[in-house]
UniProtKB/TrEMBL annotation:
<keyword id="KW-0238">DNA-binding</keyword>
<dbReference type="InterPro" id="IPR000524">
    <property type="entry name" value="Tscrpt_reg_HTH_GntR"/>
</dbReference>
<dbReference type="GO" id="GO:0003677">
    <property type="term" value="F:DNA binding"/>
</dbReference>
<feature type="domain" description="HTH gntR-type">
    <location>
        <begin position="10"/>
        <end position="77"/>
    </location>
</feature>
<protein>
    <submittedName>
        <fullName>GntR family transcriptional regulator</fullName>
    </submittedName>
</protein>
<dbReference type="GO" id="GO:0003700">
    <property type="term" value="F:DNA-binding transcription factor activity"/>
</dbReference>
<dbReference type="InterPro" id="IPR011711">
    <property type="entry name" value="GntR_C"/>
</dbReference>
<dbReference type="InterPro" id="IPR008920">
    <property type="entry name" value="TF_FadR/GntR_C"/>
</dbReference>
<dbReference type="Pfam" id="PF00392">
    <property type="entry name" value="GntR"/>
</dbReference>
<dbReference type="InterPro" id="IPR036388">
    <property type="entry name" value="WH-like_DNA-bd_sf"/>
</dbReference>
<dbReference type="InterPro" id="IPR036390">
    <property type="entry name" value="WH_DNA-bd_sf"/>
</dbReference>
<dbReference type="Pfam" id="PF07729">
    <property type="entry name" value="FCD"/>
</dbReference>
<keyword id="KW-0805">Transcription regulation</keyword>
<keyword id="KW-0804">Transcription</keyword>
Length: 219
């Protein structure tokens, strides 16, 4: 059981959301695995009510599915699901790239930030950590890289859709790196995106984005 004193700055629902999200994103909870509310409540040392509230939030994020009279299960993304998620992502991110380049939204400090994210991913890929740990860490940095670009576009509706999708994107990206096993390329494929954004070349930046995504998308 986790000590409840560590929950003082969080609502119990948020504690449940963070706990369950971590279990799903680290692969401890597998696709189609049933979530045992009683077990989770016991592990956290809280009642089942905030667990249920947390599960509702995860359901709205597309991480779990609730089946009446059966329970809650971790979502299993199909090839069709992943393809659709990536199609939506490419469409929205292409619009964001156009806006960023047209309005000159990125300055040198922004490019430095993005390059630092790439360096961090490369360091993780070359580390001696086990594959699963590296995969999770790179995925986290990858999402930070792209979210930074989304935020700079000042396109709130597109951002909102992408932010709503980002948990499912994380699941899809984790699945893809599991399939390819090529963590170094996950880092490397970001470099052309930054290169063309810095040059103000929206067309090639969008091509680089598609190349980055297509490398990992299930066929």
């Amino acid at each position: 059981m986790i000590a409840q004193t560590s929950y003082q700055t969080q609502s119990l629902k948020d504690v449940a959301v963070d706990y369950l999200t971590k279990k799903i994103m680290t692969g401890e909870y597998k696709p189609n695995e049933k979530i045992n509310e009683v077990q989770v409540a016991n592990e956290l040392g809280i009642s089942r009510a905030p667990i249920r509230e947390g599960i509702k939030e995860l359901s709205s994020q597309g991480l779990v599915t609730q089946i009446p009279r059966k329970g809650t299960y971790v979502v299993e993304l199909t090839e069709k699901d992943i393809h659709e998620i990536y199609q939506i992502r490419v469409s929205l991110e292409n619009c964001i790239i156009d806006k960023i380049v047209r309005d000159n939204k990125l300055k040198e400090k922004d490019f430095k930030f993005l390059e630092k994210k790439i360096e961090t991913m490369e360091e993780i890929a070359s580390s001696d950590d086990d594959f699963n740990s590296k995969k999770i860490k790179i995925n986290r940095e990858d999402i930070k890289f792209h979210k930074y670009i989304w935020e700079k576009a000042d396109s709130p509706r597109r951002q909102e859709i992408l932010f709503d999708l980002h948990r499912q994107l994380q699941m899809a990206m984790l699945f893809d790196t599991e399939m390819t096993g090529d963590l170094k390329n996950t880092a490397e494929t970001h470099k052309d995106i930054v290169k063309y954004l810095r040059a103000g070349d929206a067309k090639n930046a969008k091509t680089a984005l598609v190349d980055h995504i297509e490398m990992y998308k299930m066929k």
